[in-house]
Amino acid sequence: DVKVTQSSRYLVKRTGEKVFLECVQDMDHENMFWYRQDPGLGLRLIYFSYDVKMKEKGDIPEGYSVSREKKERFSLILESASTNQTSMYLCASRTTRLGSYSYEQYFGPGTRLTVT
Amino acid sequence: GQNIDQPTEMTATEGAIVQINCTYQTSGFNGLFWYQQHAGEAPTFLSYNVLDGLEEKGRFSSFLSRSKGYSYLLLKELQMKDSASYLCVIPAGTALIFGKGTTLSVSS
């Protein structure tokens, strides 16, 4: 089974702090993704990575950056946390190897971040 | 561009059948997913349709009509544990575009 893990389930940070959210997958997947999920807005893509050291902006990258130094790990960084970044953050991964469900993404359990 | 519409909320009773509809617009079609998400948990894969017709998997079935830009998820013999949000999702390049989800509440 594919396993995607995230460093914390719950996190509370203060405004202005630098925040690191870590995501690790164990299936040698090439692509990794960071989403945030807010009530009434659904899942929105922040950043994604095609492969190691490669990254692309998603729909809402402002206020975030990412790092992918190793294939299994994709980090989301909030340079200076703000209250409007209080949200559920979901990491996902997928393989680009051909298969019936090659677009399927596997999700981690999520990190609920509260910025006070 | 891409757009997905699905109802916000639905209610049903245990043992019943419910159909969750989804309409979409996309410039290039690469299939359609349904994901299930329980409150506070990550989305999990339910189904993937790329050809027209009905795909059945146990109590859950998913239907696709590419010409109409329409899909539905059919849940039979509803159980309390089916209370969740159901997300209609379409691929867009490398990423996925998620509908806002339909929250299904199953009561006894």
SS class of chain A: mainly beta
**Terminal-residue CA separation of chain A:** 37 Å
Give the strand content of chain B.
Answer: over 45%
User: Averaged pLDDT of chain B, please?
Assistant: 93
For the largest interface, the chains and their residue counts are: A-B, 24 and 19 residues
Would you identify the regions of chain B where 5 or more consecutive residues have pLDDT less than 50? none
Mean pLDDT of chain A: 92
Mind telling me the C-alpha Rg of chain B? 13 Å
How would you classify the quaternary structure? heterodimer
* Rg of chain A (C-alpha, Å): 14 Å
Describe the structure using short key phrases.
A: 116 residues; mainly beta; four-stranded antiparallel β-sheet; B: 108 residues; five-stranded antiparallel β-sheet
Structure description:
- The complex is a heterodimer of chains A (116) and B (108).
- Helices cover 0% and strands 52% of the residues of chain A.
- Chain A has no helices and 11 strands.
- In chain A, strands 2, 4, 5, 6, 9, 10 and 11 form a 7-stranded mixed sheet that branches.
- Chain A is globular and about 45 Å long.
- The mean pLDDT of chain A is 92.
- Chain B is mostly beta strands and 108 residues long.
- In chain B, strands 2, 4, 5, 9, 10 and 11 form a 6-stranded mixed sheet that branches. Chain B has a 5-stranded antiparallel sheet with strand order 1-3-8-7-6, with no helix packed on it.
- In chain B, a hairpin with a 6-residue loop joins strand 4 and strand 5 (44-49).
- Chain B starts with a strand and ends with a strand.
- In chain B, 33% of the residues are buried.
- Classes of the chains: A mainly beta (116), B mainly beta (108).
- Chain A binds chain B through residues 31, 33, 40-45, 48, 50, 56, 58, 90, 100-101, 103-110, 112, and chain B through 30-31, 33, 40-45, 48, 87, 91, 94-96, 98-101.
